[in-house]
Amino acid sequence: MRLRNALKIAIANYALVLKNLIYKIIIFAIFSLSLGLILRLALSPFIERLRPVLQSLWSVIVAIVNGENHELTISLLKTDFGAFKEYLSSNVGGLVWTVIIVLVFSIIYRFLTGISDCTLMILVNGHMTDMSHRGYVVVMIENFKKILVYQLIDAVSSVIWSAFVGLVVWGVFRLAMLIMPILALFACGLTITLAMSLYCTVFSQVMANVLLGEHRSVKRAFAEGFVPKKRYFLKMISAYFAVTVMLIYLHASVTVFTFGVGEIILIPFASLLLVTMKTVDYFTINKKKYFVDYDTIFIPKELRENDEGLLSDVEI
Q: pLDDT tens-digit profile of 186-198?
């Protein structure tokens, strides 16, 4: 029910997809140009040393396929690879700094793109509360302080969680290779999908409490949202798992069959759908009525039972 309502609300607010798309294209363009320029300057020597290795490797492959004598090409590959290793050993510091720069840019990029997702949540909350549809930029500016607070929490948490998940995935891969190598990729994919679902489950209500909660301190919003109530946890993680699997499938299919063109629509719509799910969970957990569309109002079971009790006391 919650997933179906979230999908209906997301489709009803489809105009937000275009606004989300424009914002993310602008941020992506700025960051890709900036990072591309930095990497071009920083990695130019690295690429120059790597190019001969790749050329020699290709020559070996061609020689083997054509049945030619490949001893000379293998000898050349060893020489080029030795020179490349020597370059790496003498430039470890520069490469480490390049990796750090990429990581910092990734964190800042997530931080800035997440501002749009926070804005979407506030706009979706307006739709669900009283069918109001305010301006995207106006809402972003009015709630900028709350948005920045949550994005700081999310940026730090996502880095820590990603590092932890990376270690777990590596451990799962090593274990699967020892026990049953054929299942190694499946086990890693399952672990990553579960990790993404768990992160959405845990932080969905932190996000909602910070952005939508009334008169809550950040500390209280985090404490109340970090551990969802027991009766909702399994429902939430199963729903996010199903949506994550569906989105991974759609991203893969769109990339292959539309040569990536469909991602222009799928990426901003996926953001809107996930934000809508988190907002629906917030209304459900807090037992609040909400609009699905102009003709449909969802009333939680607890409120329906209260209404029935009131009606039973009315004399007809």
A: 999 999 999 999 9
Q: What share of the chain is helix, strand, coil (3-state, %, to 5)?
A: 85, 0, 15
Which helix (H) or strand (E) is 228 found in, with range?
none
Contacts made by residues 194-201, CB under 8 angstroms, sequence distance 24+: 194/241, 195/161, 195/165, 195/168, 196/240, 196/244, 197/237, 197/240, 197/241, 197/244, 198/237, 199/158, 199/161, 200/240, 200/244, 200/274, 200/277, 200/278, 201/228, 201/233, 201/236, 201/237, 201/240
**Per-residue pLDDT reduced to its tens digit, 85-121:** 777 777 777 677 777 887 888 888 889 999 999 999 9
d(CA 283, CA 278): 9
Q: Which two tokens stand for residue 246?
A: 């569906």
Measured over the CA atoms of residue 28, residue 33, residue 38 and residue 43, the dihedral's sign is positive
Q: Is the pTM of this model over 0.85?
A: no
Q: Are 279 and 125 in contact (CB under 8 A)?
A: yes
| 296 DSSP β-pair partners | 293
